[in-house]
């Protein structure tokens, strides 16, 4: 009878240990998740403030040239529009090259696109 009691005690001990272990793991996981949700935005904000501070210091202590005035006045939309126009030109050149070298186009189409390539160069 004492061996049955020992087996039952061992079984109860294993179940209790697993239950406590799983509950502890869940608690630690939830606590870490909440900690991350609270700290991450603060860390991002602090990093952005530091980057802005460095940018301002760099701008304040960098010598100013008249050539830089053009770059300063160019805003984000101007840069975006300029990049989009460059991309459009590259795509047009690529289309012209494809059409000029395509075996599926007739001679007139190939000649037309080849003339456009020659004019651009």
Low-confidence stretches: none
What's the alpha carbon Rg, rounded to whole Å? 35 Å
Number of domains: 2
Total number of strands? 0
Category from helices, strands and their pairing: mainly alpha
Name the average pLDDT. 86
- What is the succession of H and E elements? HHHH
How is the biggest beta sheet arranged? none
Global geometry: elongated
Please give the count of helices: 4
Distance between the termini: 101 Å
Estimated helix fraction: over 70%
Q: Tell me the fraction of residues in β-strands, as a range.
A: under 5%
Write up what this structure looks like:
This protein is an all-alpha fold and 121 residues long. The protein folds into two domains: 1-62; 74-121. The chain has four helices and no strands. It has helices at 2-61, 68-73, 76-101, 107-120. Helix 3 packs across helix 4 (107-120). The model has no long low-confidence stretch (mean pLDDT 86).
